Amino acid sequence: MENNQWRSPEAPYWLYQHARSIFALAGIIVGGGVCLAQEYLFFPPQMKRLLGWLIMLFIGMLGLVTGNMVQALYREADTDPLTRLGNRRRFNRRLTEELQLVREFEQYSVLALVDVDNFKHINDTAGYNTGDQVLVRISNIFRRNLGLHDSVMRWGGDEFVFIFHGSSAGEGRLVLERIREQIHDDPVIREVTISAGLIEIKKQMTPDQVLNQADCLLSKAKQIKNSIEIC
After folding, report:
1. Least packed by Cβ within 10 Å: which of 73, 122, 159, 192?
2. Domain segments of the chain: what residues?
3. Which positions fall inside the GGDEF domain (predicted)?
4. Which residues contact 162 (CB under 8 A, 6 or more apart)?
């Protein structure tokens, strides 16, 4: 696992987060300048004011639409196209945010790496389309079991990563056990199993340390199959 991926460069989040406001403000400024420029044109005063306000309104609306488009593109860049879960880019930022919360508020938080057992065998015997369907179905089960402030992202291939915000390791394990039961009860993928490595995030940890320890636990769980290793 390439743990240094969390450092990958990305566009400033605040720029996308406030894109609509930035474009709207720019539209008002430009429109205001145009409105002032109308004073030098040979139109009746009332027509100049009306034209200026119409231009300001148009540019402001254009800014709002453009801002929405930028935010939609940013969300898409953070989303895995197959499962519609967050992708590794989203996880990089999410882990950094979670570590900051743990340090500032000294609250519980748990990270779990989850792997689909024998997934290569599924692809080799049933085909890649079937493999994709398995991932989508499992992802939907993952999503249904998230708490309000929890996250699940596709790390890559058949690996997923959970962040259980405000949960202890025991509480995180209960969620994963419930997920395992629901996968077993699913009529389509009931033969599929998952393994997981689950670790409680400590405030002194770095992102690399969190991922390395969770990855070690996942490796142990994968040797057994259909199991959860916890620390």
Report:
1. 73
2. 13-77, 88-230
3. 107-231
4. 110, 111, 112, 114, 142, 150, 151, 152, 172, 175, 176
